[in-house]
Design brief:
The complex is a heterodimer of chains A (437) and B (543).
Chain A (H helix, E strand, L loop, with lengths): L18 H6 L4 H8 L3 H10 L12 H6 L10 E6 L9 H7 L1 H15 L3 E6 L4 H16 L15 E6 L9 H8 L23 E5 H5 L1 H13 L9 E8 L5 E6 L2 E2 H8 L9 E5 L8 E2 L6 E2 L1 H6 L8 E6 L4 H15 L5 H18 L6 H13 L7 H15 L1 H9 L4 H6 L12
Chain B lengths: L12 E6 L2 E6 L4 H7 L23 E4 L6 E2 L10 E3 L3 H16 L15 H9 L15 E3 L4 E4 L8 H8 L6 E4 L6 E4 L11 H6 L5 E3 L12 E6 L8 E7 L2 E7 L12 H4 L14 E3 L2 E3 L1 H14 L3 E5 L5 H13 L4 E4 L8 E2 L5 E2 L7 H8 L6 H11 L5 E6 L9 H8 L3 E6 L11 E4 L8 E4 L4 E5 L12 H12 L9 H11 L16 E2 L15
Parallel strand pairs in B: 1-5, 16-17, 16-20, 20-21, 21-22
Antiparallel strand pairs in B: 1-2, 3-4, 3-5, 6-7, 7-10, 8-9, 11-12, 12-13, 14-15, 14-22, 18-19, 23-24, 24-25
Classes of the chains: A alpha/beta (437), B alpha+beta (543).
Chain lengths: 437, 543
């Protein structure tokens, strides 16, 4: 069976984002059916059977997540759509929101029916101005057409969707950080338990799903769980958007079946490593994932295979680095990001991310010491698993794997007085100028 | 705690394992609280029993059999079958890691930091921290600025535990403080143009585990280990907040709240906290005078004895600052002079305040109205006082002994001043100088509330022990207690002088309200006296 694109099938067409176009191609028929005919429990069971895994990064089974929400609760329930898409190297949700916003809305309707939700918030990354406009247009059209509002698709159900723009913090993509931000507080992750399904936004039961996850729902309803499971590997099936960036000839977002070989993704779909150079390293799942060396790249792009390879699918943001890349500079760049984005709540992350950046920065700028390599790894060990959210882990993982797997680059920078790029910019600089010697 | 109540009213217990020992605690407790019951103190920075759980400092991480990662014991609850290790390799390394992280950007300015000596970071560093630093980078710089009229932030020292922020959100309900910036730039700040200026603001300095929040009042005043401390009770209002009075070389330097869950939790108000300055105010009375002539201390007592031994019936004007013990001595004197009467004056009410946490400030700005009513009767500030004032104004009594104490500069007010000056022989104990001393026969310096040793009864009817900030035998340690007993000895109504505890035993024997109690069974929360004397309304009385 050849793979047919589901999420991005029509994105090349000019009016693909309009309600008219979407309905012409069968849009909202699944939502209509589920709102009018399905029982909530049947929908949850269907999604469980389809083994839909969350597309945000953690890969948690969506149906299971829904089933955690208490059936009887006197509090309102909420759906919060995570559209913050802030993981470096990731730009898949953006495509859906800009080109196929009604697909997301249809997914939202199905989820709302399954969990008995009346209010959905789309928490969208603040920088996504165009996507916000497209999304808002689509919502306005849907209200106009009676798809959203007091009588959704003639079902008598009342479902409202509101777009909420973030203000530009990576941590607001973490689910509880997003919820505090949505509540109007400083975006900081909350202690778990209680988990959002029990006590989420405004203290009420809340489902948090990623944009791409919800966009899979209409298709699951259309073809059924069995057919859906036939796409890609059994344990994490379905179509998947892969974002390829970095040193490739044809970067972009590619919809492919889960489990496609990483080499095929890079070489066939993304045009191969650019400028005829050789592959050096790949970060397969957003910048928080462990890096793979060129030799380790014979791996399938699905949750289990990447986990077995010691890394993760994460957000499927594939960052490709060619052999001209100095991994010391690459790590400085990453550490600067995590240092800048740590919310500052937990001590190990607040202090550790800054410390890591300073050490790696020092190595890149010619003041490194051999013992710094052990120090980096030890600081990472002291951060992993010791904080409220996973940001500390996300900072430590790339640092651990880059220092371990590309040790030669670091030793060279220490011995030669800095990274090649630094030395090029500062030809007269002499290493070892730091006061500590 | 409702969650551990079973149907038959007993407390449900949870069996768990702590460091290899099978232990039991009431269900619903956190690991940290429960471990403490078994003598295991888990270190903390952000945890405070009076505030919500933030779980951000991470120093209280311990190893659990329910999680591959270490868990934080301030937030994680005990459960049946839970196995917790506080000294395992994972627990110790987690703790030590947090300590190292806390210290990398913390300045080494302990020698000039006011918190030094009572700093949680110092204490934990000594026990759990590394003995040298692996951090060779430049330390971060954060702001140092005034956050309000009484408090500044030394940002470099801040460990972002958010205790102060949570205090302003949850206890004072004023929410002036926030954390600004992210990551290791995070620091406590106020919103632009809105300083921290609430009635409980001073508590944020107390609960700061490091020297980040600094009180202007105490800045560079003393090294905390050099100060003497006395467990006292604030006399600033009828709440009777439990406090600690700290002195250095005979000077009061700072008042700190002392935990009493029945009265003030962990807090006190700024009015009380900074109120001790009146001890050293220009209008403090320090010199005894006889008809306007200065007297030495001994001759002042002699003059008091002479005036009283010659007198017939005496009018006694008491104030609501006297301790129960002092009042008992006054009562003894009155009884020994047939025909004597007692009335009392009350200062005007001030402002009351109620806070979201339940903390209260009383409008009655004095500590012991209730004690006076237990000892002299319900009308001592009511009809008795009216009658006393009338008698004094018509010169029915040749002698009056008046107590004009307290921290307020207003004294007993104009009408009482007139009544006192109409009496031929007036003996006035006073904390302050003021118009009420005009024409007095004998003026005696008196002790301010925190200088008194004895007991007060607060507005809830709670009998509490307060200790003088001075040591016994050094002036002005509870001067009235000493002087009134010397007087009683001279008048042959007492054989020997006693401590405040001894006087209280006499009071307990003589007065049913106090029967069966003594100083040592008051304990730290004090004692709720069963009932107030009949017919007392809290808002009644007059001057």
């Amino acid at each position: 069976m050849t793979f047919r694109k589901i999420l991005t099938q029509h994105i090349a067409e000019a009016d693909c984002h309009t309600l008219n176009f979407y309905q012409r191609n069968g849009g909202y028929s699944q939502a209509k059916k589920s709102l009018n005919e399905h029982q909530p429990d049947d929908l949850i069971e269907l999604v469980k059977a389809a083994n839909l895994r969350g597309r945000g990064g953690a890969g948690f089974p969506t149906g299971v997540k829904w089933s955690f929400v208490p059936k009887s609760s006197d509090k309102p329930k909420y759906l919060v759509v995570n559209a913050d898409e802030s993981e470096p190297g990731t730009f898949k949700d953006r495509v859906i929101m800009e080109k196929n916003p009604h697909l997301l809305l249809e997914g939202i309707l199905i989820c709302c029916k399954a969990v008995n939700i009346q209010t959905a918030y789309i928490y969208i990354r603040g920088e996504f101005v165009f996507a916000t406009q497209r999304l808002q247009q689509a919502i306005d059209e849907a209200y106009e057409a009676g798809i959203l509002g007091s009588d959704c698709l003639g079902s008598g159900l009342h479902i409202d969707v509101t777009v909420h723009r973030g203000a530009g913090a990576y941590i607001c993509g973490e689910e509880t950080g997003m919820l505090t931000s949505l509540e109007g507080d400083r975006g900081q992750p909350k202690l778990k338990p209680p988990f959002p399904a029990i006590e989420g936004v405004f203290g009420c039961p809340t489902v948090v799903n990623n944009v791409e996850t919800l966009a899979n729902l209409p298709y699951i309803l259309e073809i059924g769980a069995e057919a859906y499971c036939a796409i890609g590997p059994e344990k994490s099936p379905g179509p998947k958007l892969f974002c390829v960036s970095g040193h490739v000839e044809n970067p972009g977002t590619f919809e492919l079946p889960m489990g496609i070989p990483l080499r095929a993704l890079i070489d066939e779909h993304a045009g191969g490593v650019w400028k005829g150079r050789k592959l050096k390293a790949v970060i397969p799942g957003g910048s928080s994932a462990h890096v793979l060396t060129a030799e380790e790249c014979d791996v399938a792009m699905d949750i289990e295979s990447l986990s077995a390879a010691g890394t993760m699918l994460g957000s499927a943001g594939v960052i490709v680095m060619d052999d001209s890349t100095c991994m010391v500079d690459a790590l400085v760049n990453l550490m600067r990001f995590y240092h800048h984005e740590s919310c500052g709540q937990c001590t190990p992350c607040r202090e550790g991310t800054g410390w890591l950046e300073k050490i790696v920065h020092r190595i890149a700028h010619g003041d490194g010491r051999m013992e710094d390599l052990d120090l980096v790894l030890d600081v990472c060990d002291r951060m992993v698993g010791k904080t409220i959210c996973a940001l500390a882990d996300a900072a430590a993982f790339p640092a651990q794997s880059i220092v371990t797997k590309f040790q030669d680059d670091f030793v060279a920078a220490i011995q030669n007085g800095g990274s090649p790029a630094w030395k090029k910019r500062h030809p007269s600089a002499v290493g070892g100028t730091a006061s500590h010697g | 705690m409702a969650e551990n109540q079973t149907n038959d009213g007993t407390v449900a217990m949870t069996r768990w394992q702590l460091n290899g020992q099978e232990v039991e605690n009431p269900t619903g407790m956190t690991i940290m609280e429960a471990a403490k019951d078994h003598g295991i103190e888990i270190p903390c920075f952000c945890y405070h029993p009076g505030l919500s759980i933030a779980g951000n400092c991470r120093i209280c991480m311990v190893e659990s059999n329910r999680s591959p990662k270490p868990v934080i014991s301030c937030s994680e609850k005990i459960a049946d079958g839970l196995v917790i290790e506080t000294e395992s390799e994972l627990a110790v390394s987690s703790r030590n890691s947090v300590m190292e992280f806390q210290l990398i950007n913390h300045p080494l300015d302990c020698p000039v930091c006011d918190k030094s000596g009572e700093c949680t970071l110092q204490d934990h560093s000594y026990e759990h921290g590394p003995d040298r630093s692996r951090f060779v980078e430049d330390k971060n710089i954060r702001h140092t600025k005034e956050l309000g009229p009484t408090i500044s932030i030394w940002g470099n020292r801040c460990i972002v535990c958010t205790r102060c922020v949570r205090f302003c959100d949850e206890i004072s309900g004023t929410s002036e403080l926030c954390i600004v910036e992210r990551g290791d730039r995070s620091v406590v700040d106020v919103f632009p143009e809105i300083p921290i200026d609430n009635q409980l603001a001073g508590n944020t300095v107390d609960i700061c585990p490091v020297g980040a929040l600094i009180s202007h009042d105490f800045k560079y005043e003393a090294r905390v280990w050099n100060m003497d401390r006395k467990d006292s009770v604030c006399g600033g209002c009828s709440r009777g907040c439990n406090i600690e009075v700290e002195t250095l070389d005979g000077f009061v330097k700072r008042l700190m709240p002392r935990e009493n869950l029945e009265v003030n939790d962990w807090w006190m108000c700024d009015e009380g906290r900074y109120g001790w300055r009146h001890l050293y105010a220009d209008d403090r009375l320090s010199q005894a005078t006889r008809d306007g002539t200065a007297l030495e201390d001994d001759s002042a007592t002699a003059a008091l004895e002479q005036l009283l031994s010659e007198s017939g019936p005496v009018a006694f004007l008491i104030d609501p600052y006297l301790t129960c013990e002092e009042m008992h001595l006054v009562q003894g004197l009155a009884a020994s002079r047939p025909g004597s009467i007692v009335g009392g004056w009350l200062p005007d009410d001030g402002d009351a305040a109620n806070f979201p946490s339940g903390f209260k400030i009383s409008a009655a700005k004095y500590p012991n109205r209730s004690g006076a009513e237990h000892i002299f009767g319900a009308q001592v500030f009511g009809d008795d006082a009216k009658e006393l004032q009338k008698s004094l104004l018509s010169s029915d009594f040749p002698t009056v002994v008046a107590f004009c104490g307290g921290h307020l500069s207003t004294g007993p007010g104009e009408s009482w001043a007139k009544a006192l000056s109409s009496t031929p022989t007036s003996i006035i104990f006073s904390v302050k100088t003021g118009p009420w001393l005009e024409g007095a026969s004998l003026v005696l310096p008196a002790t301010a509330p925190i200088e008194k040793d004895g007991t007060w009864i607060n507005e809830d009817g709670r009998l509490q022990r307060t200790r003088s900030c001075w040591n016994p035998g050094t002036e002005p340690f509870s001067v009235e207690l000493v002087r009134l007993q010397t007087l009683q000895n001279a008048l042959d109504i007492r054989g020997r002088s006693l401590s405040a505890a001894g006087i209280f035993r006499e009071l307990a024997a003589a007065n049913d309200s106090f029967a069966g109690h003594n100083h040592s069974d008051l304990g730290s929360p004090g004692l709720l006296l069963a009932e107030r004397p009949a017919g007392i309304a809290m808002d009644g009385g007059s001057e």
